[in-house]
Predict the structure of ABC transporter ATP-binding protein.
Amino acid sequence: MTTQTRQERAERSSRPSRPEVRVVPPPAQLADDLVLDIRELSVQYGYGENAVQALKGVSLQLGRGEILGLAGESGCGKSTLAYAATRLLPPPGVITGGEVHFRAVDGQEHELLSLSDNELRAVRWSDLAIVFQGAMNSLNPVYRISRQILDAIQVHRPTWSSKQRQDRAKELMQLVGIPAERLRAFPHQLSGGMRQRVMIAMALALEPQILIMDEPTTALDVVMQRQIVEQIVQLRDRMGFSVIFITHDVSLLIEIADRIAIMYAGEIIEQGPAEELYRRPRHPYTRGLLKSFPPLKGPKTELTGIPGSPPDLANLPTGCKFHPRCPFAMEKCVTVEPVLQISPAKPEPGRTVACWLHEDEALLPQELAR
Ligand code: SF4
């Protein structure tokens, strides 16, 4: 296929669009064993006239044992989505709509947004764990690592004997690849990578079913980043938990994720199996993101980035939110918002995209049609 000019694409885009919007089912391999099912979740920051919409009707599924990567530039709603889904959203964030269904291993289902605080606490501590952004800096500098891990275990396992807690602390350290002797160290005696591993060990203390990691490797060098992501995959393989891994570096996700969802201006604009999304991005924004970070391995590639900056949530563009930065924008993009759907032009299992270029294969530029 030849590359079209902007004018050609504009002419084609003014053709009547397909009447029906395809309903997007969860990927077939996930449908039977979902651990988390986020439906139409909306969040705003602030109240009344000053409120800004930070998430707009986001639906996302997480399979049991799956590692789902959530990527996008800062301020696109990744952390808001994770914190809202677990009801950890700090004020002035307000959940304005949606449901979050959590299915435990015993098959029991809970709708997290309608649980009482006590019910939620029981689910959250035992089944959901979060490693917050910059967590490694939240270790208390004046206490040894052992005390901090033992305290965390004691809060959640008050009936355990001291010996049981100490055995568990050693086991957790070994699980994340740190010799148990280092339990006696103070945080400043450990490298950044080790401190981050300690935080992961603490998050795994209660054997959660879902581990949410918010930019867990951002402050680390690439070698350490790689070691941490490899370790998370190994732990998942061994313990079977599911992971939501949040990062602005989509190239890191190819090392760890089974599936990737890309966010922009509070919405998911593309999702699909990690390898396929990485090799053949279908959305212009995803393509730009991939060209913003060097891959952790493989040949050198030219980094071109994305022109401009993410939109102000208080003053979002009309139509496709990405249109002011999109090199392929057409007339229709400025006025009509695309929906996330299986691409009519390039239908692929488990993949969805929100972009008008996919209405017709002839509209797709070569770089998005490979
Ligand atoms: Fe670009 Fe958005 Fe138009 Fe797609 S729908 S071509 S991403 S402006």
Notes: Residues 45 and 152 are 32 Å apart (CA to CA).
